[in-house]
Amino acid sequence: MDIRPPSPRDTRLDVIRAVALITIFINHVPGNPLEALTSKNFGFSDAAEAFVLISGISAALAYGMKFEPAAALVTTLKAWRRAGVLYLAHLGTTMATLGIFAFFALHYQAPGLLEKINIAPVVDDTARALVGLATLGHQLGYNNILSMYAAVLLMLPALLLIGRLSLRLMVAVSGTVWLLAGLYRIGPSAYPNEGIWFLNPLSWQFLFVIGLAATMHVRRGGRLPGSPLLLGAAASYLLLSLAWVQIPLWGVDMSFGLPRVLTGFDKTYLSAPRLLHVLAAGYVIAMLPQISELARRAPGNALAMMGRHALPVFVAGTILSMVAQAWRHVHGSFFATDIIIIAGGIGLQLALAHYIEWYRRLATRKPTAPDSGRPATAPLPSTGRQPAGSPEVFARSTTEPGRM
Description:
The protein is mostly helical. The chain has helices at residues 12-27, 47-62, 72-107, 120-124, 126-134, 145-165, 167-184, 201-219, 228-246, 260-263, 272-287, 289-292, 302-308, 310-331, 335-363, and strands at residues 388-389, 400-401. The protein has one domain (12-365, 382-401). Helix 1 runs parallel beside helix 14 and helix 7 (167-184) runs antiparallel to helix 8 (201-219).
C-alpha cells in the first residue's frame, strides 16, 4: 500500500483561473474605468477564451485520465452530472438577472432596463421566451458562458472515446467540427430569436479539446514541443495582436478572400485569430517558468482560493455584475462610484471563496476527544466531496480539479 502523502498542491492554474474570473467580472460591467486594463485591450482574445482553455486543462484529470474501459460509464455520468449542475447554475443566474432588472425598472421607473441584454423578448413574448430559456435557446447578455460549457461537457464522452484511439484524432475531429461550424454558420438555435447561441459550443469545444488533449498527452509521459522557433512565433503573434488592438488596425482587410472563421475576429464562431491568440499566450506561459512561476502562491492565498471555487465565485460575480449594470443605468456612471462598485464586487467574490474554504474545513473537522479521555466513537459523516485540485500542462497535482 502506498502511504506517501500527496504531493503539495500546485496553485498556478488556480491563480490564473482567479485572474480570469476577476477579468470577466470587470468586463461584465461595461464602461467602467478598469475595463481598459483587461486582457481584451491587449490582444485578440479575452478572459472567456482563457477560461475555456483552463477548463479543458482541468477536465483532463477530472474525466480524461479516468476514461478507461472499466470506468468510462461512471466518468460519462459524472461529466453529464456536472453539465446538469452548470445548466441549473445558468438558469439561476438568468432568473436572478431578470429579477434584478425588473426590480430596478419598477422601483426607479426605468422601463428601458427591460429592453437591455436581450430581456425584451421575455416581456414581449413571454411564453416562447420561457421555452427558450428552459431549452437554452434564449440567453441573456452576459449570461451565456455556463450554457456553452454545459453543452461542451455533454460532447465530452464522445470526444474521449475517439481520444482513446488517438489524441491526435480527437483533436482533428474537434477541429473539423470547429471549421465546419464556422464555414456554414452552424450552431444551436437561439429560439425564439433568429440565429444561434452567442457562444457557439460547436466552435468553442475546439479550444476546450486542445487544452484537454495537451494535458492528457503530458500526463501520459509526453512533452509539449519546446522549439525556440515555435516560442518565438508565439511571442511574435502576441506582439502583433497587441499592436493591432492598440494602434488600432481593425479597418485593415487581411482576409484575402478567405472565410471569416479563418481571418475574422468573430467571438461566436471563435475565429482563428482569437483562437491562435489564446493558444499562443498559453504556450508562452507553459514554456517559460519565469512567467508561470509568478502565479505560484500558497494554497491559502486569496487568488488560489478563488480559483479553487470557480463555479460559485463565477455565479456570484455574474449576479453582482448584473446589479452593477442596473444600478449604473439608473444612477449614472461616475469614476469614483465605478471604482467602488468594481472593488466591492471583487471583494465579495473573495469573501465567498474564503467562506467556502472555512465551511469545508468546519464540515470535515473530526470531533475532539471528550473530557473523560475516551476517544470519540465516530468521525463526522463524510460530505462525499472530492478535494479540489488543479491539473495543468506545466504542473502536477494528485487531486481532483476545481471545475467550472
